[in-house]
Amino acid sequence: MRALKGSATPVSGQALADELKISRAALWKHIKKLRDSGYVIAGAPRVGYRLEAVPEKLMPVELEDELAPVFKGQVLCFESLGSTNDLAKEKAARGEFRRAGLVVAETQAGGRGRLGRAWASPHGGIWMSLVVRPDLSISDASRVPLLASVVIAEALAEQLRIKPGIKWPNDILVNGKKAAGVLTELAAEWGGVEYLIIGIGVNANFHARELGEHAPRATTLIDETGTPVDRLRLAARIINGIWEELPLLSQGFESVLSRWRERSVTLGRTVTVANGAETVRGTAVDLDAQGGLIVEVDGGERRVFRAGEVSLGSSVVK
Ligand code: BT5
């Protein structure tokens, strides 16, 4: 694939077979496989093969070309999966993805949100799970959703010139509606984190009406911008961004917190936080060092939430 990609003119079958150190028959099978998966490869006798179009799908070769070197050979793409987080977890638990890995699906039949909620995952979205094995304490791992949401919001701002907001802890909103979400799961031992699964869902190239009543306050990037987004470029920017910034989870997290605050749509608002059986109303005043939400309740008492669902009320002008 790479040999074809690098050349604007046709490459002879013999040259390709030589480069790949395979027979002409094996090369032909390889080309057929690529064609079956959506690559358009023109082939003429004596002239050779030329790549005319790459599939609209997210493909390992295309992604690996854009991702940090650690992802070479560690990207898996599927037409359809139950949940990318589930497969990523299974593989990580078996010891695969020794440093990092990525699982991508065009659609998910059982996409998951937080707290056992469902995540609708039609064609055209970016549904992917990043596996990393950082040297991290369990307490610092609680910072991951904030880092991921900052990186996603910045990627959208940069590539699409929109102004995403972040609702605590990790909902990415565009014009007040949810365009992306993050589901972080981890396996840990007493010593610290064994691996993290960072599941990312971005509503990219489909219309929000496809989500139906399951996601009444959702939007998609194509609905917001009017043009299809380059899913490959956006996915790569997000994955590379998170990968590069992982060290900030244990050192220098303050800089991530201030980037999060800049894009926050939660701070300074009256909020209702539902956490388990408890529901608390107050003003969201700030984040603590681990990314917990500090809420000032009536009477001035301050509570810190590590988990929970926030509903936004009005802005509080101080
Ligand atoms: C999230 O949950 O926001 C985390 C979403 C993570 C999805 C990714 S996709 C790749 C990876 N594999 C998975 O199986 N999951 C991850 P939460 O904050 O709990 O939001 C869930 C709620 O958002 C649902 O109860 C719906 O109301 C709404 N919702 C469902 N699908 C949506 C969509 N596509 N866009 C916006 N909102 C949606």
Itemize the secondary structure elements and their pairings.
Elements: H1 2-5, H2 13-20, H3 24-36, E1 40-44, E2 48-53, H4 60-66, E3 75-81, H5 84-93, E4 100-108, E5 126-132, H6 138-141, H7 144-160, E6 165-167, E7 171-174, E8 177-189, E9 192-202, H8 221-225, H9 231-245, H10 253-263, E10 269-275, E11 278-287, E12 293-297, E13 302-305, E14 309-315
Parallel strand pairs: 3-4
Antiparallel strand pairs: 1-2, 4-5, 5-9, 6-7, 7-8, 8-9, 10-11, 10-14, 11-12, 12-13
Helix pairs in contact: 2-3, 7-9, 7-10
Bound molecules: biotinyl-5-AMP.
Would you kindly provide a brief summary of this structure?
This protein has ten helices and 14 strands. The protein is an alpha+beta fold.
What this model shows, in words?
The chain has 318 residues and is α+β, with helices and mostly antiparallel strands. Helices cover 30% and strands 31% of the residues. It has ten helices and 14 strands. The protein has helices at residues 2-5, 13-20, 24-36, 60-66, 84-93, 138-141, 144-160, 221-225, 231-245, 253-263; strands spanning 40-44, 48-53, 75-81, 100-108, 126-132, 165-167, 171-174, 177-189, 192-202, 269-275, 278-287, 293-297, 302-305, 309-315. The strands form three sheets. It has a seven-stranded mixed beta sheet, sandwiched between helices. Strands 13-12-11-10-14 form a five-stranded antiparallel beta sheet, with no helix packed on it. Strands 1-2 form a two-stranded antiparallel ribbon. Strand 6 (165-167) and strand 7 (171-174) form a beta hairpin. Helix 7 packs across helix 9 and helix 7 packs across helix 10. It is elongated. Biotinyl-5-AMP binds at residues 83-85, 108, 111-115, 117, 119-121, 127-129, 171, 178, 181-183, 199-201, 203, 211, 214-215, 218.
